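Record passed on underneath.
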Amino acid sequence: MDPFTAIGLASAIVTFVDIGAKIVKRLKELSEAGDVPEVFRDIRTRLPLLTSVVVGTQQNIEHLTPEAREALQEIVTQCFEQVNQLDDLVKKVVVSRGDSRLVKTVKASVSLIEEGRVQRIATALRDNVQLLTFLNVTPGEKGNPPLERQSSEPPPPYAKEIGVFLVPFSRDEDFVGRESVLQNIVSSFEKQPRVAISGIGGIGKSQIAIEYCYRFKDRNPRAHVLWVYGGNIARFYQAYKRIAQLLEIPGWDDPEESILELVYSYLSSTTSHYLLVVDNADNIEHWWPGKYKSGGLLDDPAHNLSKYLPERKSGSSQVLITTRDDRVASRLTKASKPLAIQPMSSEEASLLLRSKLSGEEIEYEKSEVDSLVEELDRLPLAISQAAAFIEENDISITEYVEALHGENAEEFLEEELDDSRRDEDSVNSIFRSWKLSYDQIRKQKPCAADVLSILAMLDRQSVPKYLLKMPEVTTSLTVLQAFNLVTARAGSQNFQIHRLVQRFVKIALLKEKTTQKWQEAALACVAREYPTEIGVAEWPVCDALAPHVHAVTAYHHDTRAARLDLAHLLCWSADFDIERGMYTQALERARKSLDIFEELVSKDDERLASATWLYGRLRYYRAQSASDMSVATDLLQKALAISKYPSLNYAESAFELAHLYYDECNEESCLKMGKASFECWKAMEGPNSVRTLDNQHDYALELAIFGHEEDAIAIWQEILERCPASDATENTKTVYTYRSLAGIAEFQGDSAMAEIFYAKLISLCEVLYHSEHVHVIDYRLSHAEQVMRQGRHDEALRLSEAILKASDHTSEWSIKASCLQTMAECYKMKQCHHEELNYRLRSLRLHEKSLGHNHKETVDAENALADCYLSSSHYQQAQSLYIKVVSWRNAGLGPRHSDTLRAMEHLAISHSYQDQDAEAEIIFLDIIGRQDSINFRLLNNLCVTLQSQGKWMALESWAQNARKSDSEYRTSIIWSWTTALEQQGKVEEALAIRAQFLTVNSPSDDPVLTRPLLVFPPARDDRRFGRMIHPRTWSA
């Protein structure tokens, strides 16, 4: 509410006189000490005079007409604002006796900067003295507010006989751009007599209007060009009074005539050609006070400025309106759409900045100029402010940009610009300009100001309307759009605000000490709308909210409610980060979420279970050591223990544990958790639920990979039977059908049939998603694998190469890694070791980049590369890698893990191929010692190394273990045994053993047995099971 409406006009005058007297007293004291800056000397003279006149006017209040009282209220309002500004300036620039030398120097510098502002206040005080004097002299003039403000500009440059030119501003010789806007104004006037240009404060509306006036006068030298300030009623009346006087409208000097009615009638009926500009028509209450009430005299519908705008349909008159409020523009132009003024183009903005920095011949770098104008949103007033500040303070553009990001940015953007082409009552600062709009919105529609406060705390671009679940949000957004503080994205329900507007609102809220309130409100909005079960269908929502999540989670929150909202949002946004492959950010968010929930909620709270499961999942994904895997296991087991059954948290914790145990080759635990996951979904949603069937499919995969193909196929057949009755869409049912059939065919060894079903999955999912969607790419890779298993290696390579290119558009690196693995396998089968080596190296680098050097999957990639080196006879390189792999697996998986033993066996073989049989013997003996029973392949390899070293007694001792064996290696080991006997002179015993155990008479009868050979361990079945195989489709 206006302060004078609240305390009354008489009380306001008393308050004004009291403040003015204090300022005069202060200046008088300092003047006697010689410490008053020159710029304040004129103020010291004018302020006592103004105070005296105000006191005199107060005595005549009861004799004034209502219109005169309203005008007096406007003038006193201006005076009150001016003395408050003076009070602030005196404190900033006037030196006190106790000030230090440094403070005196700083205040002297500030006084130079503020000189223009003080001068404008002095001019305004002089004008107000004249107006108040007029009120004192003619208190009884009927219906007439005070006489017009006397312009301080020089006389109009055009003579009266060729048309009055009443524009109080000189032409800007450096006017830049805006040609399309000026042309649009011309075109609009060809269709309608009133045209409005609207835009945010500082966008350059008044400067465009000034330029249009001069161009209009150049084209129409005999026409009148009239300028009216529409920012307040008193100034509007003053301008009409001046127009009446200069145009010599009959009755202009008759005190019984209403000036507003007189000018309105004349301009509505004259045949003279004229252009009338109404500048800064921003306050809708001045134009329709009966509809937009504010309290006080303005609520009288009789005081309606909109009634006094001339209306003519002929082409000889033009009325141009500038406003920040699109509602004013639309209504004053009879529902015509206003010309919305946008920020300057980059080229125009750069040119404007350079034109304002012409004091010194300095060559500015294009990059720094572009950086500054973009930082200022290409707003002309902000650019002009910046240029003035840079020149006055002799700083560089780079220094100014850095300052804008500093703690004192407000001072830079609130600095008043001394510009003779802006109205004295207009605010010449971008932030002060917006504050007028902000205050007006807060007064007219508080809900709109609340919406703006929340918008400022979110990311400034693409704010979905559904985030703003607030009272009157639709009408609030309409008001904010009307003031051009908020813009709507074309064809959507998304909104955005200028960078500088966002900064202004944040500073305004900081001054109001409500920043934390609105930060928490914005956090609550995002947390409320963020999905908590994230599947494919939720990805677009999560993508849209991602920048707002980043914004609100960066604030510091203290209250319990806000911290719980923060923990909730961090938890589920981390879940989506995993889907995007942003593991580092996800890990940080999940850790923070867990910390907050552990502090604030009970140990059996489901929110704690969610955060524990998610953090455990991430620790598993990013595990780089045995201790990391142990931590992940403990977290997931803890989440399982505190989760209710059945629940989402229980099902997901069991699901992740199943995958973790698979990586550890823990068959029993993997199958137990896999079954628990799908049975939990079954208990929650029934046997035909999409999510039940999805997790049941994962369990079938686990069974198949661990060798239980029949059980797996039975489950897939069950899924096929249940699909028709499921709650899935028809497309999802079809996906399930093809996926199950592909699994059955694949694990029955029918790669041709599996290929057909994967091809069908690709075609269907390209329709459901798009050709480069992560699910489509995954099915394409499965299809290529089936082609490879049928021996069509070149075709598989072509398919894989295409997938590799498509995977560049997805953040899921594991797809690319699997593709590289498939291509390497193709070249391995083709015996193209050089090409295989290339893809193995690329795969290893990708794993190192994505997971680090010590992650299990990176070690697996190192093992595959070592295998490639070994098969291509690069034994030394293979040996170096196997040593690293064995070392990690001993610590990470354990000394008896099958992957550890397999790597040790390859390491021993690499030694043997380099004639390092003693080292190979030690490793083979170590492996045998770790096993519960003898592995005859290993025994065969040990015998080979012993035979190569001539260790006949040891060979005889070990080879006897094959006596009761029926393995495929029995014959080879017994030949080694008999050879050892012969070498020790035990020929008859050797012959007897051959006769008993062998079907050939001598080694020469079987060339293969002339010297036993090393046998490689069987390759592990590295089918793509885990995080990406058959991605979830229950949200499709």
